[in-house]
Amino acid sequence: MQEYYLGLDLGGTKILTGLADKNGKILARSRKDTEAKLGEEKIIANMVASIEEVLAKKNLQAEDIIALGIGSPGPLDAKKGIIIENSNLPWKNVPIVEKIEAAVGIKTLLKNDANAAALGEKWFGAGKEVDNMVYITISTGVGGGAIIKQELFSGVNDNACEIGHTVVDPDGPLCGCGNHGCLESFASGTAIARMAQEAAAEGKSKKMLDLADNIVEDVDAAICAQAAYQGDQTAKAIFAEAAFYLGIGLANLVNIFNTEMIILGGGVMKSADLFLDKAIATMRDNALPGPLEIVELREAELGSDIGLMGAIAVAMEDRLIKNG
Amino acid sequence: MQEYYLGLDLGGTKILTGLADKNGKILARSRKDTEAKLGEEKIIANMVASIEEVLAKKNLQAEDIIALGIGSPGPLDAKKGIIIENSNLPWKNVPIVEKIEAAVGIKTLLKNDANAAALGEKWFGAGKEVDNMVYITISTGVGGGAIIKQELFSGVNDNACEIGHTVVDPDGPLCGCGNHGCLESFASGTAIARMAQEAAAEGKSKKMLDLADNIVEDVDAAICAQAAYQGDQTAKAIFAEAAFYLGIGLANLVNIFNTEMIILGGGVMKSADLFLDKAIATMRDNALPGPLEIVELREAELGSDIGLMGAIAVAMEDRLIKNG
Question: Which residues form the signal peptide (chains A, B) (predicted)?
Fold first, then answer.
């Protein structure tokens, strides 16, 4: 009998669901709007509709599916299957696993999105050949997930590897978490946008302002990148600043996890040529020789499928470890 | 038949060897000078003499011993049994496991001292009741060892958990490793001594200078502590500075390891009342709520036996995990 798995990537604006065979090959997909503003019941109904649509596409029933994996922004309690909070979804303490299992009758597993992405890159992406890796996403925020001896390192209550909220300079900028100088406050899309808006407001970059039709609040990381590609020195300096702190964060990871591979993903990596070389050079300057000599840095391979492939890897994790 | 284990704590000035039963109870001890200056062969001869002395005390032979654990400062390659380098011992790339096994005929295992101490506190000290913990030693340097699901997390080549060399402020002081702003450069005995000497040289603390007979180079962390206990404001401020950065380092550990317990040991902890409260407050300010709510901070319990008990735990690790 064919083995089928489902993955569901729960985002603030869209729900992506995929059906995969036992090798992680996607056989069918569905995409629905999250409709977050319509509240908890509607979001869950949209998730269920997405799952049902993907099953219908291959004429499958719930009993044909071994497991469903959900990747969601956190914080969440993966073991209890509860999403504790979510800045993009208007809910608190939602027992999502229980609700989805009740609605569709498929065994359901939950992980935070960065951990799911780490599993995705481990089993289907850049980390296929290694047993130990750390995945870092550089996106709106900075998140991470570590694989140790093939297994996801979740920590005691699913909060491990919050690399974005390690402090790399206590005198640094205010972070969304309320502290100062977290890695995320220097090297995320949000941080780059903040620096770019400040520079634009201070009249330091006509180019960025111009690209944003002179609306300072519309200057974001993408505009900063575009300006940098067009030679704007201020924009380039902003990426250099982010790169430096990213390099410090990477060195700290090297010294703590002593891992085989660090994989970098997330939206900001689309402009990797603006900052990655400097980040790597800073990492090499700051990491200890012992752990540095065995670590390899790679870009994520799953691209826009990372959320979906991560969720599928969550569904398959037990099987993958056994056969890995 | 009784099960016996040996532990050997290899230090720059002394070699401590202990014989333990299967419960980790020390039955006999030996102490020898390392005589580091006399070179590799002499150091190894002293280790062997120490082992033989402890066996003789209980009238035991090599074949009565299940395993010998060695704890040594690193960097080292535990799997290969090689001490790569050691700032206190005049050797490089010494295949210590092979040499000791050849000399005494006992199965030998090697770990770096901080990792060994982590195992010691896990199995015989403050961490007995938990499966996940991080041990931090605040001593000449700052070192660490993490236990994940009862097992020592060694990393790919025995360099995991080098928390002392994670950067907490890139503009910080020069560290022994060559970088700036490592945790060790703010919150070790060496860092406290450096700050105290600077203050004494600038005439900011007559008390510290007085305690050092006006020899600036003799001002060390112990003198700084003594001055602080006697009310010297400069000395107190130095401990407060170290405490702040220690707290940042602890918060980063909490956010990365999401562990049940952090255990603090090492010589500087003898003056814990000068800095621990502030370090804990800073940790609480900077860690995320999720991992913070489940972590407990404890002082190490093994005191001056930590090196020896750590080495014994190294010898016993396989047995302890099986029976733990």
Answer: none
What does the pLDDT read at residue A80? 93
Domain edges within chain A: 4-112, 126-300
Distance, in angstroms, between A62 CA and closest chain B CA? 34
- For A175, the closest chain B residue by CA position comes to B286
* Averaged pLDDT of chain B: 95
Average pLDDT over residues B121-146: 96
The interface pTM score, or ipTM, of the predicted complex is: 0.94
- Percentage of residues in chain B having pLDDT higher than 70: 99
3-state helix, strand, coil in chain B (%, to 5): 45, 25, 30
Q: Measured between alpha carbons, how far is B144 from B154 in angstroms, rounded to an integer?
A: 11
State whether residue A129 sits within 8 Å of chain B by CB.
Answer: no
Residues of chain A below pLDDT 50: none
pLDDT (tens digit per residue) in B255-276: 999 999 999 999 999 999 999 9
Instruction: Sort out which chain A residues have CB atoms less than 8 A from B260's CB and list them.
Output: 156
Q: Comparing C-alpha atoms, which of B122, B142, B125, B144 is closest to residue B133?
A: B122
Q: What string of DSSP letters covers B205-247?
A: -HHHHHHTTT-GGG--HHHHHHHHHTT-HHHHHHHHHHHHHHH
H/E stretch holding A26 reads: strand A26-33
Homologous superfamily, domain A4-112: ATPase, nucleotide binding domain (3.30.420.40)
Contacts of B251 in chain A (CB under 8 A): 166-167
Please give the CATH number for the structural domain made up of B126-300. Answer: 3.30.420.40
User: Is-contact A84 A77, C-beta < 8 A?
Assistant: yes
Examine the pLDDT at B324 and tell me if it is beyond 60. Answer: no
Q: Region B81-96: what's the mean pLDDT?
A: 87
